[in-house]
Amino acid sequence: MNGTVIVIAKEPVPGRVKTRLQAEFTPREAAALARASLMDTLSAVRATGARGVIALEGSPGSWLPDGLEVVAQRGDGLGERIAAAFEDAYDGSPMLLVGMDTPQVVPELLGFEWGEYDAVLGLTEDGGYWCLGLRTPDRRALAGVPMSTEHTGRDQLRRLRALGLRVGMLPTLRDMDTPKDAAYLAAEFPELRVSRLYARVVHSAHPGLLFEQALGGTARVVATGIDGRAVPSLSELDRWSAPADEVDRLALSRCEGPVLDIGCGPGRIVTALAERGIPALGVDVSPRAVSLTTSRGAAALHRPVQEPLPGEGRWGSVVLMDGNIGIGGDPADLLRRCAELVRPDGLVLVEVDPDDDLDDSTPIILHTSTGRRSTPLPWARVGTRTLLRHARTTPLHPTEDWRTPHRAFLTLRRTA
To answer: In this structure, are 276 and 237 located in the same domain?
Structure first.
């Protein structure tokens, strides 16, 4: 191609790029995907053999290949920055400007033959455009065109034609703005850097991140064993987020205050206890869970159960609802910790699996409806008989075993 290809881009800094990807990815993961997308785009530019210029917001990094010129972005708003990029890169030859969000672009597209055209435009599926070409800089082509709307592409085309320019149209592409866009690109263009990175990241999420998304309602999350079978007690997030039901209240009637709720989640148990006038505190490793609990007017603390907690040895009751006896993957160890937390005659209330003989300590995997998968999370699922066997290694003595048609509970009391 005879001419210049301009890439308008942001330095891939966590929290400043690809914020819409953060619906499912951490800021660092989103920035890594943006970096890979930018590198794919720059590789395509270099492969054209054309002069390459990057109009950059931020500082160059190791992602920038040799042979490309760098100009700083200037101007207020995206339209002004694009206009300035054309001016700063102009050397008398036609210019094609592209973004960093279409890593699937190929050199053949960037090497477009202008022929009799005065301008070039390539639209995106979401209503924007992935490239704009001008023979000479002209601020009139961009002034006042609304950016980042579902009709930006149409408005830009209308403006170019209103200036009397002959416009060549390039194929419509899909840019990478959302997790669904990233999944599409990874499936359709697996050879890209960004696709290979996506394949690694999407299957190695931290379990805490997916729990946060589930509690925040940004993703539907299910839990399975390593074998792929669902874990029902960890897939009932609708019940976790709802107020305490009749079975919950029946279980809590056994509690003696003050009560410590381990793995409190969104706080329905702590809230129900507070409504009964029983002092209660929830603890959880999820900041969102703690925030949701406190927003209900209940007390909660962001801390793992194995770290020092307020009132150690003075709690009247400790509760492990919704299968939270599985936290950490070692029920015996968790029971011993509960025994440390309650007072000498304190009570530990445990919700167990309805299958009395269940003894499953294999890790679990969290999955979102969009395909994200967590790294293995240590967990355990136990029935009544299994829990009784674990309790023999602790100073806790079983006092009651009771159940409803679909849920089962065991209470234990600390003894000398």
So the answer is: yes
Which residue has tokens 């953060």?
22
Q: How many CB atoms lie within 10 A of CB 61?
A: 12
Number of domains in the chain: 2
* Residue among 32, 23, 55, 29 nearest 42 (CA): 55
Same structural domain, 195 and 160: yes
Cβ neighbours for 332, distance < 8 A, ≥ 6 positions apart:
390, 393, 394
What CATH number is given to the structural domain containing 269?
Answer: 3.40.50.150
The answer to whether 373 touches 200, Cβ cutoff 8 Å, is no
Contacts of 62 (CB under 8 A, 6+ apart): none
Report pLDDT for 333: 97
Do 16 and 155 reside in the same domain of the chain?
Answer: yes
Q: Which residue has the tokens 């995106």?
A: 124
Pairing of strands 315-320, 342-352: parallel
197 and 327 share a domain?
no
**H helix or E strand, kind and range, residue 302:** strand 300-302
Q: What is the CATH number of the domain that holds 8?
A: 3.90.550.10
Per-residue model confidence as pLDDT tens digits over 280-313: 999 999 999 999 999 999 999 999 999 999 999 9
Please give the residue range of the domain that contains residue 328: 212-414
Two tokens at 68?
């490309």
Report the half-sphere exposure of 144 (CA within 13 A, side-chain side).
5
Residues 238 and 93 reside in one and the same domain: no
Alpha carbons 332 and 348: distance in angstroms, whole number: 13
51 and 185 assigned to the same domain:
yes
Q: Is the separation of the CB atoms in 98 and 130 below 8 Å? A: yes
Residue 207 located in a structural domain: no
Same domain, 252 and 178: no
Whether the CB-CB separation of 318 and 263 falls below 8 Å is answered with: no
pLDDT in tens, 228-279: 777 766 555 666 778 888 999 999 999 999 999 999 999 999 999 999 999 9
pLDDT, residue 403, reads 92
Please indicate, yes or no, whether residues 246 and 149 belong to a single structural domain of this protein: no
Residue type, 347: L
Closest by CA to 390, choosing from 338, 344, 341, 318, is 338
In the chain, helix, strand, coil percent, each to 5?
A: 35, 25, 40
Cα 243 off chain centre by: 26
